[in-house]
Write a structure and sequence with these properties.
Layout: E1 7-14, H1 18-26, H2 28-34, E2 39-42, E3 49-54, E4 57-68, E5 72-79, E6 90-99, E7 102-110, H3 115-122, H4 125-139
Antiparallel strand pairs: 1-7, 2-3, 3-4, 4-5, 5-6, 6-7
């Protein structure tokens, strides 16, 4: 991971096809397992809406800026679960690349106008999410992480 305040970049390789990774990114049943219990709703078109919810509450919302199924997704990102992030808008880009029997996944979170969001998602946010996705796709089981002692 790059730890620059204005941009956070995460790269991982998953033993899964780009189709399976894309499905994990866009399926509410799968995101609920690895994305802090939230269910994604994605309108798969430029200008469409992205929302992660837990129960009736929206945790994150945004707008689709670019969409190439199984290859690239770019959205705005507005944190709703932390009042300190109110009004901040950042941008998240997911890039998928087939690499033999694996997929290279590169997630870039651009946070130049969102310093509170940067603190919020940078500690164990994206690292936990992407590790959880990798574990789910490779083992079929959720990743269980104990709280810090």
């Amino acid at each position: 991971m790059s730890t620059q305040t204005s941009t956070q970049t995460y790269e991982t390789f998953l033993r899964a096809t780009p189709e399976a990774v894309w499905a994990a990114m866009t399926s509410p049943e799968q995101t609920e397992i690895y994305f802090f219990g939230s269910r994604v709703a994605l309108e798969p078109r430029v200008g469409g809406r992205l929302v992660y919810t837990a129960g009736p509450a929206a945790l994150v919302d945004g707008e689709v800026l670019a969409l190439e199924p199984r290859h690239r997704l770019v959205t705005t990102w507005r944190v709703q679960y932390d009042p300190a992030c109110a009004g901040e808008v950042s941008e998240v880009e997911w890039l998928l690349e087939a690499r033999g029997e694996a997929t290279r996944l590169l997630v870039t979170h651009r946070l130049a106008s969102a310093p509170n969001t940067a603190k919020n998602v940078g500690s164990e946010g994206w690292s936990v999410v992407l590790s959880g996705m990798k574990t789910l796709l490779e083992t079929g089981k959720p990743l269980v992480i104990a709280p810090r002692a």
